[in-house]
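Annex B, item 7. Sequence and structure tokens for protein A, then protein B.
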Amino acid sequence: MKLKHLQSLQLTSYPIEVSRGHLKLEPLSGHENLSELELSGVIDNPSIIVNTNGLPQNLTRLTLVNFALRNDPMPVKCLVNQKMNGRKEE
């Protein structure tokens, strides 16, 4: 199924706490109308998110929930809403 006009997408892997379900993503760059993306849980291939070539050009909001990255590979260059929530795990 091709969702050519998809504008918003929320993906959650369950159970988050018990067995750490994993999301298996493919590049989303082909979804040109996708402007909001929320991912919750563990992603098998976080390079899709880290490598901005895997994300749509029109993406204006990216929300990562219960997402474990040891280092921030994408330092914030321009924070439009002047707001950022999160914590770094040691």
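Protein B:
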Amino acid sequence: MSKVIATIILALFSLTSVYAQTESNPLSFMVGKWKGSGWMMTQNGKQYNDITENVVCKLDCAVLSVEGLGTKTDSLTKKLITVHDAFGVISKDTKSNKWVMRAYKKGEVIDAEIVFVSENVIQWEFQQWR
């Protein structure tokens, strides 16, 4: 009986912890589907494309999943082609107390720290895909 009570108490503490993380997630403004234009720097300079991002709360918003798709019209074939297809996971590193992103693109993975520039403005930089 005492094991059951201890388990219930631990479960309640866990729920409180997750709830507190949800309320203090400074990135919740990103949740939703986003469409717009963007660019990426390549060897040929800036390459412009249309971008769709889908940001979803997971685990009571302690983790965000981010799916990004960039497309453009091929100048020769006039067909829509994919130029960017990536998936990322954003969460708080409890050891460093920083928000971090792990991004995946065509079998590659990279980690980046989220930097808060101002309210609802963030920045990150990928050093090198591995």
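Comment on protein B: Confidence is low (pLDDT under 50) at residues 1-22.
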